[in-house]
Amino acid sequence: MILRCLLFFSALFIFSCNNTAPENILPLFHDAGFTLHPGEKNVQIIPKFQNNWQKLTDTLSIPLFKYIEGSDYRIYAGLPYNTDLKKLNAVNLFPNQLKNAQSDPTALYRTYDLDTRYLAEYCVDYQGNLLYFLTETDSAARRDSLFSSEKFAARIVSF
After folding, report:
1. CA distances from 110 to 37, 84, 115, 129, 144 (A)
2. Exposed e or buried b per residue across 10-48, where buried means at least 16 C-beta atoms within 10 angstroms of its C-beta
3. What's the CA gap between 117 and 113, in Å, rounded?
4. Sign of the torsion formed by the C-alpha atoms of 50, 1, 28 and 149
């Protein structure tokens, strides 16, 4: 299992190094990228971020791939493997705090209200690969305005 993960991420690293993306595009794999808004930055993953990711996604087995910080929010990006949207759709991170849920054959989107934290979960099948995003903020209005299903979809681009 560990060897499989290592090979998977090694291949992703090699593919992402071969692409040159515009400055505001964070490369994910091949020619897929995530558009960064002004003030957002890709931050090296440290144990603190990894631990928080694991607490939020303990019912999933998706490795953390990228971590993005905005002024008052965090975006976690994972690359699911050995799964599909149907299986991910069956797993609800916080069933008692689910606020909104949408899904179709190519994407799922859910929001959660956890006391003082507001999450948005988005997973999409992009060119045959799953991309998983989880955002965390202290404002429901910010979550709903910045991280709607449509806004997530618009931020995933080819370059």
Report:
1. 21, 16, 16, 19, 11
2. eebeeebeeeebeeebbbbbbbbbbbbeeebeeeeeeee
3. 6
4. negative
Cβ atoms of 102 and 114 within 8 Å: the answer is no
Give the CATH number, domain containing residue 10.
Answer: 2.60.120.1690
Q: Are 105 and 85 in contact (CB under 8 A)?
A: yes
| Residues sharing a CB contact under 8 Å with residue 105, sequence separation 6 or more, in sequence order | 85, 125
Range of the domain at 40: 2-158
pTM summary value: 0.85
- In total, how many domains does the chain have? 1
Nearest to 79 by CA among 42, 40, 16, 124: 124
Segment holding 159, helix H or strand E: none
Q: pLDDT tens for the chain, 159 residues: list them.
A: 565 544 555 555 555 555 566 789 999 988 899 999 999 999 999 999 999 999 999 889 899 999 999 999 999 999 998 999 999 999 999 999 999 999 999 999 999 999 999 999 999 999 899 999 999 999 999 999 999 999 999 999 998
